[in-house]
Amino acid sequence: MSSRRTETGGGRIDRSRPVRFTFDGVSYSGYAGDTLASALLANGVSLFGRSFKYHRPRGVLSAGVDEPNALVTILRGEVRNPNIPATMVEIHDGLVAESQNRFPSLAWDVGAVNQLVGKLLSAGFYYKTFMGPVVGPLRGTRFWMFCEHFIRRAAGLGRAGRMPDTARYEHVNAFCDVLVVGSGPAGLSAAKAAASQGGRVILADLDARLGGSANWSDETIDGVPAAEWAAAQVKDLKSRGNVRLLPRTNVWGYYDGNTMVAVERVSEHKERPNKGEPRHRQWKIRAGTVVLATGALERPLVFPGNDRPGVMLADAARRYANEFGVLPGEKIAVFTNNDSAYGAALALKKAGAAVVAIVDVRPDVSPEMRDLAGETEAELLAGHAVTATEGGKALSGIKVQRFDMQGGSLSGAERILAVDCLLVSGGWSPVIHLASQAGAKAEWNDSLQAFLPPKPAQKWVGAGAFNGSFSTAAAIVEGHAAGIAASGGTAAPLEPPSVEATPCRPEPAPVLEIGASGKSFVDYQHDVTAEDVRLAHREGFVSVEHLKRYTTLGMATDQGKTSNVPGLAIMAAALGKPIPEVGTTRFRPPYAGVSIGSIAGSRYGDLKPERLTPMHDWHVAQGATMQPAGLWWRPQIYGHPGETVEQAYVRETKATRGAAGIVDVSTLGKIAVQGPDSAEFLDRIYTNTFSTLPVGKARYGLMLREDGIAFDDGTTWRLGEQDFLMTTTTANAGKVLQHLEYYLDVVWPELKVTVTSVTDQWAGAAIGGPRAREILAACVTGTAVDNAALPFMGIVHGEIAGVPVMICRLSFSGEMAFEVYCGADWGTHVWEALMEAGKPFGLVPYGLEALGAMRIEKGHVTGAEIDGRTTACDLHLDWMLSKKKPFVGSAMMNREGLTAPDRLQLVGLVSLDNRPLNGGAHIVEQVDDKNPRNSLGHVTAVCYSPSLGKYIGLALVMGGKSRHGTRAFVSDPLRGRFGPVEIVSHHFFDPEGSRMHG
Amino acid sequence: MLITCPYCGPRDVSEFTYQGDGNRQRPAPATKDLGAWNEYVYDRINPAGDHNEIWQHSSGCRMHIHVVRNTLTHEITDTRPARGGHPASRHHGAKS
Amino acid sequence: MASTRKAGQSAGVSAVARLSALAPVYRPGSHGNFEHGIGVALSEVVPTSIVQLAAWSGKEKKLIGIIGSVMGLALPDATGGGAVEGARAAFGVAPGKFLVSDDRDDLASIFAEAMEPDTGTVTDLSHGRTVIRIEGPEVEWIMAKFFALDFSLPAFPVGAGRSTAHHDIFAQIQRTAAEQFDIYVFRSFARSFWTALCRSCEEVGYEVQ
Q1: Domains of chain B
Q2: In chain B, what residues touch C79 (CB-CB under 8 Å)?
Q3: Touching check for C69 and chain B: CB below 8 Å?
Q4: Which DSSP category does A744 fall into?
Q5: Are A769 and A635 contained in the same domain?
Q6: Which of A457, A745, A892 sits opposite B83 (nearest CB)?
């Protein structure tokens, strides 16, 4: 392959720093500053990938983010990053890139056979072939299920890897007065003007090199080459303390309140990131005002064979020549509907290419353009069009015919021109994506044949080509004005700089398609042809939104940057309507591809922080199996070697019921309720009364929601006349606090009550069992713990091992039990003292499994039963509903539906086949495993009961108590578990509570 | 979206929790009028336009806030502490 | 009345050493990309007492006065208004609510004595919050990775406080010097937060003191 690198030129590359990389396993070299696209072009590579549907060979169309064809997969070790435009990849030593959608190789691709059956793959192919009932052997949803594997393999883009992404991603927040998006002449001018007003300015650009089109235009600004002018502006901005420059940054989302989201490619252009450096950094920028200086994208023309490798956007070719010193072809032709391509042709001529012809659809070309054509020594074919391209994996020639712009007809003899590169230009589309995201509809401008930005719906100002102002001088003037306006300043308009440029009138001819036979591509990436758009119209699609979905036009990873306007023009012509009546779709984030990692940021793995109790390290050191409970980590079991989970919790339960057990209850929600109206407040919140609770006592409380459904339960301790310590279930701690705050802020602001989360202030250990009191007596000082000093629900203050503790006698396990609370930093100290004191009495630590088994044996309810559907009556907690006072939920809890006799109510279950039960299984009167139906309710909690020697469970069952003593069946078709159970009272164990009352 | 907390200033919406329609009035606690309770618990006017809402600055000062938000544009035209009372009479979207 | 209030919500005083939530993950030394300099230094501040004070509506100024006399700190009456001097710190976290921290034993009881019930409430959080200090030239950059707040000095002056969150982790932050912030997080989250903080500091090089 011949080198296409020019002898000189290429302001971006550093010829003193060669870079080695591989593409599809072949080693190439380029220079520092090259993109993968420029480096491969320089090496004479023309074939970059295979197309989505037809597997047609594709080259590189553009030089930037709009690239639809040259998508590659970048490999870092085993980690694959697919679908990255080669035009956006900066090469570095060791870069490994692969082409996509080809098998077995890019040059020899089996899928290319799809080109022969192209008619079968037209718009709506999937809908027509694979949806709906079977009407033939090769139709219908079942056929799809058969074909899916093969189609998914054949059609599509890059393959995602199976290895976890090892790169680092992170988020960062930023605040500024002015965010300038785009660093071309308009953006640089805006940033400088805004910075001069003293505010904080951020300037972001997708590209690694700031300066935008100034870096490759052939213009001079104020007497110096534009690229030098841009470099000087950048240097000036860098020197200012109030400016942050963000190159390699894709500002991809414009959200409410001028919240802008951007991804910075921090380190992927390096062979190895610095320590701690992320691959991508997601910026959330709150900008006072945004300056949109996002420029414009050139559009291709739609004609047969317009996707052949070697067909390239005119300005992209200019950029390769001027910025990278790469000639995309040696014998080139130009095909255009506007003036801008003439300048590109001249640039390529100057860089050393031969310009064979300039084919212009316009019959009348201005004298200035004729002069430019003369300067390039090209044949000017005005009033002509390209009707076909020739060649295989690279362009070898084009066919040209006389073209009538008015009627769109072709006439005269076909001429064949031998060229290896065709530059196309269909005019320019301002990049209005962010403005469109910000709200309001784009406005069609007929003379520019383009959508222009809408009136701002948020605080932004536009400048330059974004506004449809395509000259550099205008961009600089508008940028300056935008920068001042965005800063809220006033200043005289900037004197226009002197810009030397090739002449160019911006208005293109209103021709975007040449109607000749052959596949003419509109959306290159999704292989949507002009004929597909017309077919959609013939099949009755009228709305542009439907057209888009039916043909998938503009829905590929490039989001139709090059295809939207040509597609609309074809649709409009088919409908016989002007483009503004057809309308355009609203742009949505992201503007350009965003890595999933950058969205996750540093939230990876299980995506959440770990909440640890004060005794966490002790549990781990004792070999506890830790288990997540919400964000918390709690011991599941303290297993002995060789024990199953069931064996462990049965042992722990037996030890507790036989002697004593201790469990970490620090995770229980704890809320300090303080102030003179605390008791009154609790009376209103709880179903039962707390104002009568004496200081030094605790009471079990139940809360309902306003609609009368049970919400949460727990004990609340009265520590002082105006001081309560409320406990909640672990899972509901946050919700209960919010519930209390809502009533204090919104409903009863007159109550003097403060509520504060003190969950983390206290370490809690529940110690229960027949020997529990003896253990406490052995280690507690400063207070007695006998029945007189510490009756059921009593509270005492004392010390354990020199640490102040609060002890409340209450029981979840059903045993004589005590909750011992101390300052969290002393939690492990007190826990260890309790363990030490308990040694002679056989104290064991137990985990969530044993806790669960003991609560099931006692029939205590938890979140599995307080599930947002059950009432206090359903749970047999109606004894807690005060009749003497209103409380939250009291007005609505007795509604008809909430008191109906067929409601699901809490019962106990005993397995009659001595096999474990499953949570979630249904309860039925008759088992029918073929046709499971007629559920009476469901199982909420299960365990092996060491006390009963049986598998038991809790369930919510229609009829509740009335079914006690009857037989039913569990029906669990998903897990294939069917079997007989007896429905019993939920109080399995010690229903009189004699053990806990001692 | 940014919400201006009367105490903390403008903060990202992710710091806030939506706490329901700000137009509803809780009946007197002892009222047995189920119609009134039904209206309070279930009825919402769901306007297309300015809406009185209650938000809590749950990842901030934890204050509840009356917010007037346009449900079509997300524009927020007023925020004030919920403790200041019910703003319904001052805004569109109030029950008529 | 004061004595029952005092007994109420305080973890009390003991000679027994307190165990930091960070103990197993607190690794003094230089870490990350420190060869090019230390961007920030991290440490755990261990005040003996952390107390939340809340004033009833209309009593805010009175409470600010009490804080002034107990702490010797003059708080500006502004959103998040705070002051810091040595180990003594106080700042606003919510309307009428303040966090104060100090190296005196049982500050909660001292405030409970100094405050009438009709002024407001005193809640001991000495064990419930872990205070992480981050300081150094890159401090604003690191803070911006965690919190959606404007950490520039004009927007967040020395002494001032802010309540915010990093995802699920609630945080109350005081700027205790131009290049120094103290972050109060729930004790149970402290280790997770510390680990994430260390990781984010690697880029700039950090030192654990």
Answers
A1: 2-90 (3.30.2270.10)
A2: 7-9
A3: no
A4: I
A5: yes
A6: A745
